[in-house]
Amino acid sequence: MARLRDCLPRLMFTIRSLLFWSLVYGYCGLCASIYLLKLLWSIGQGTRADLPAGRAGAPAPVLERPLPGTHCYVRIKESGLRFHYVAAGERGKPLMLLLHGFPEFWYSWRYQLREFKSEYRVVALDLRGYGETDAPIHRENYKLDCLITDIKDILDSLGYSKCVLIGHDWGGMIAWLIAICYPEMVMKLIVINFPHPNVFTEYILRHPAQLFKSSYYYFFQIPWFPEFMFSINDFKALKHLFTSHHTGIRGKGCQLTTEELEAYVYVFSQPGALSGPINHYRNIFSCLPLKHHMVTTPTLLLWGEKDAFMEVEMAEVTKIYVKNYFRLTILSEASHWLQQEQPDIVNKLIWTFLKEEARKKD
């Protein structure tokens, strides 16, 4: 009997793991089937479905104009990868490191590069696999451990031991993990539209609505097909994310211009440019939930209430994982793309948070 009691916890863990992976792969298959049916439906209706084609020639005009910062590159000794970033502000000032989401690149932080360069060395990074940063071929090169180590190595290469860390969407996921694993590196943590990773994994299993909103996480587990779906019809799916009524930027005055949208398409239309970003997601289920999860860094969480991908309730729950000063601001009628849609408000809230913490120290 005692032996049975000892085996029971392991048996329950095995059963839960089997159920979890059954859900993951079952939902992967369902999502793939739905996307395939959509493609076949569009073809059956006579809708033109152009095959993928890389964009030739010079970058989009908006990327050739005077930029909010300077293009820079750094090669990491340990991994051998070359990272691209755009930097603004004087060297030697405190570092503010900006981590973008999907499908974005450094340009999504253009408003913040201009705003915070007066007091910070602001660095908007192209994450591993994105933009002009090197993109390893294999899926295993995009595990969360690799992405966390990237940020640590970049700080070392830039000559800093700590920074103000800001992340949006998937960059928010990485920012949370850095604050958890290397709290000494993060002076202040600011996350935009991404909950604490454990909140995300627990919530998604209990709330069908969030499971549906996160269907792309499961769809991205499938080899090559997601890249294909994003590429057809001149990257229509990519444009749709930023422009549709449901998922796109909601503020009329802040919607991406034609040239800005073309910049995103140009970056992701380069040969192999989608595989790296999607490979980030192909490792997530093997890394979560976290064993160590408490955040001890002062934290600001900003959230667009009309986020089409994340339930706002997750923002409220996140505070239980922060054992320090925590501030949550939810912006009504704002979308997932918060720092681009409402840059003035976002910048003001960030300034307030940074100054507030400085006054506390004084």
UniProtKB/TrEMBL annotation:
Gene3D superfamilies hit by this protein: alpha/beta hydrolase (3.40.50.1820)
Listed GO MF terms: epoxide hydrolase activity
Domain AB hydrolase-1: 94-340
Record-annotated membrane-spanning stretches: 20-41
Record's keyword terms, sorted: Hydrolase, Membrane, Transmembrane, Transmembrane helix
Keyword Hydrolase included in the entry's annotation: yes
InterPro entries to which the protein is assigned, alphabetical: AB_hydrolase_1, AB_hydrolase_fold, Epox_hydrolase-like
The organism's place on the tree of life at top rank: Eukaryota
Family listed: Belongs to the AB hydrolase superfamily. Epoxide hydrolase family.
Name of the protein in its database record: Epoxide hydrolase 4
Annotated organism of origin: Myotis lucifugus
Organism ancestry: Eukaryota, Metazoa, Chordata, Craniata, Vertebrata
